[in-house]
Write a structure and sequence with these properties.
mainly alpha, Globin-like, 7 helices, 0% strand, superoxide dismutase activity, EC 1.15.1.1, oxygen carrier activity, transport
């Protein structure tokens, strides 16, 4: 049974808001990561190749930061395409959560940090309505990731 995580209207407005962000996936993804690394420097410890970078400018130019920013946005984009089908949604979120919990050992609080920065950027670029329509999506993502972490014994 493919149950809906959000109502049809919520799915549509969330997709609309996300599409505007995803048009510039690499730049926006980079901005989000650079903010995370600057505002929460402890998050850099997971990325060995970003460790030596202190200036936001330097990070913005880094191919690794840009590449990972794009990767994060692509993953969210996959999730957004499957908001109307919880089985497909979990099919994407579950392996992502497992990998971050078991292989990468990323503290799950970092998902909330990155989601909040995405919402913040959305609001700056496209206003409060975009942010509000996407907030439910980030809550779903973080809730499911946290559940996966619990199952993995965090």
């Amino acid at each position: 049974s493919s149950t809906m995580l959000l109502s049809e209207a919520e799915v549509q407005s969330a997709r609309g808001a996300w599409e505007k962000m995803y048009v510039d996936a690499e730049d926006n993804g980079t901005t989000v990561l650079v903010r995370m690394f600057t505002e929460h420097p402890d998050t850099k410890c997971y990325f060995t190749h970003f460790k030596g970078m202190d200036s936001a400018e330097e990070m913005k130019q880094s191919n690794q930061v840009r590449g990972h920013g794009k990767k994060v946005f692509s993953a969210i984009n996959d999730i957004v395409q499957h908001l109307d089908n919880s089985e497909a949604f979990l099919g994407i979120v579950t392996p992502l959560g497992k990998k971050h919990a078991t292989q990468l050992k990323i503290d799950p609080k970092n998902f909330r940090i990155i989601c909040d920065i995405i919402l913040e950027l959305m609001e700056e670029k496209f206003g409060g309505d975009s942010k509000a329509s996407f907030e439910k999506v980030t809550n779903e993502i973080c809730t499911h990731l946290n559940n996966i972490y619990k199952e993995e014994g965090w």
